[in-house]
Amino acid sequence: MKCAHYRSSLLLLAVVFFFVGSVTSAQDNKNPTIHASSIQILMAQSDEVKLPIEFQLALYENLIEQIQKTNKFQYVYRDGDPGASSNTDLVILHSNVYGFKKGSEGKRQVTTFAGATQIKVHCVFTDKTGKSEFAQDVTGNVRFVGGNLRATFDFAKKVAQIIVTNFQ
Amino acid sequence: MKIPWVFPIQLAATALLIGVGSLAAPCLAQDASTANAISFADTKEVLGLDGLKQNVTGTLVAENGSLVFTKGKKKVAVPTASITEVMTGEDTERAIGGTVGILTMFAPYGGGRFLSLFRTKIDTLAIEYVDISGGLHGAIFILKKGNAAAAKKALLSQGARTNVPAEVEAESQARPKEKQQ
Asked: Which domain holds residue A9?
């Protein structure tokens, strides 16, 4: 009877160790360290949803501004810049918008709980050959203060944070 | 046979008109070129122009093949030939904006929320352009209601390109209103 109790506690301990190990290994996979001296940011694509052009442009411009502010890269190239092709140590950021809900600034300010604007983007960092180095879904929101375009600023800030944590 | 006295006067008048007409031709040409210069005061540059901060209010002018945004002494010009897309839209913004608008949110008894109900209609103008090195840029402007279509036409007449003509865009923006009625 005592032996069975001992065995069950050992089993429980093994299960706990297994889960702790899997969580830490998952965290290790989540935080790879990528090295690149320069980045090229491509214009956000929206194949699945209809995204107004002002949101598309604001996403792109805010991304460039926020990534420049991180000071992680020597050069931040724009979409179409031929200088990027000559750079060997380059990472390319592709953004694909897969969810968009345009809220209402008026509703947000009057009700404080309705009218949120949300933009969901799948971000992929690839090398020059197109090989994926890192991918993550990022959501930009504006829930209370600010216009609808502020969701793109929120998104860009989050992407900048991802770059800070994942790039050398 | 007597020549009527009116004839020499008619001849002189015709000669004078031809002379004046030939002088007037260059003036008309000048008028046509300057007529394309259209300015939009109190335009807000939301983002996208190099050398300017975001949310700056100034004057947008389409002249001499350029889109020029002026704020005080600062002047940013984008050649219209480098503009690859021009799109317009409609939106609303708070009648009382800026820092004062934010501070009104803390007004007692929901006063700030009540003030948020007062909104002004605005037009948005989004342009996509290419810089000298080939990099893609985007800029967004907020204009007074009814000015975006005129701004788009002015830019297109000076060499900017678009995939959606101004007339088609105006029709597509008018449709939802018709449905609402």
From this structure: 1-30
Nearest CA in chain B to A147: B93
Three-state helix/strand/coil letters over A22-48: HHHHHHHHHCCCECCCEEEECCCECCC
Q: Where is pLDDT greater, at B23 or B74? A: B74
For B116-139, the pLDDT digits (tens) are 778 888 999 999 999 999 999 999
CATH of B37-180, one of 2.30.29.30, 3.40.50.2300, 1.20.1250.20, 3.90.550.10: 2.30.29.30
Task: Residue B117: list chain A partners with CB under 8 A.
Answer: 106, 110
How many angstroms separate the CA atoms of A22 and A154, rounded?
Answer: 31
Residue of A nearest to B137 (CA): A61
Residue type, B30: Q
Contacts of residue B112, defined as CB under 8 A and 6 or more positions apart, other chains included, come to: A109, B104, B105, B106
Chain A residues with CB-CB distance to B47 below 8 A: 57-58, 61-62
- What is the ipTM for the molecules in this complex? 0.78
pLDDT of amino acid B175 = 66
Asked if B93 lies within 8 A of A78 by C-beta distance, the reply is no
- pTM confidence score: 0.77
Q: What is the CATH number of the domain that holds A159?
A: 3.30.160.150
Residue A72 and residue A13 share a domain: no
Is residue A61 within 8 Å of A159, Cβ to Cβ? no
In this structure, the answer to whether residues A108 and A144 fall within a common structural domain is yes
pLDDT at B2: 54
Q: Tell me, yes or no, whether A114 and A154 share the same domain.
A: yes
* Chain-chain contact of B47 with A62 (C-beta, under 8 angstroms): yes
